UniProtKB/TrEMBL annotation:
Transmembrane helix as UniProt keyword: no
Assigned keywords, A-Z: Lipid droplet
One GO cellular component term noted in the UniProt record for this chain: cytosol
Protein name, as recorded: Perilipin-3
Protein family membership: Belongs to the perilipin family.
Compartments, as annotated in UniProt: Lipid droplet
InterPro entries: Perilipin
Single GO biological process annotation from the record: lipid storage
Domain of life: Eukaryota
Signal peptide: none
Length: 113
């Protein structure tokens, strides 16, 4: 999970979502109260689940470690094959916008000629 969270694309996407969430909460008082209540509920459920799951995780620790190592190797290969995962969201959007613009320009040129 930490390796996925450290991917540039994932971390920048989380930053964008977090900023939008915080901005929306601050701009709209009614949404803020709903979000605050939802956050408290999620926190309570998470704490309760964590205390129940901990004994199971302790028992399964060797299997979790093996799965984690396997997943880590898979993520490394995925990162090699998809370099876009190492780019921030803003750059991907900019690159996509440029690509679409150039394709539209090519199409316009083709139609006009």
């Amino acid at each position: 999970v930490s390796q996925v969270a450290n991917l540039t694309l994932v971390s920048s996407a989380c930053d964008v979502v977090s900023t939008a969430y915080a901005s929306t909460k601050e701009s709209h008082p009614y949404i803020k109260s709903v979000c605050d209540a939802a956050e408290k509920g999620v926190k309570s459920v998470t704490e309760a689940a964590a205390s129940c799951v901990q004994p199971v995780l302790t028992t399964l620790e060797p299997h979790v470690a093996a799965a984690s190592e396997y997943a880590s190797k898979g993520l490394d290969k995925l990162g090699e094959k998809l370099p876009v995962l190492q780019k921030p969201v803003e750059q991907i959007l900019s690159d996509t916008k440029e690509l679409v613009s150039s394709r539209v320009a090519e199409a316009k040129d083709a139609v006009s000629s």
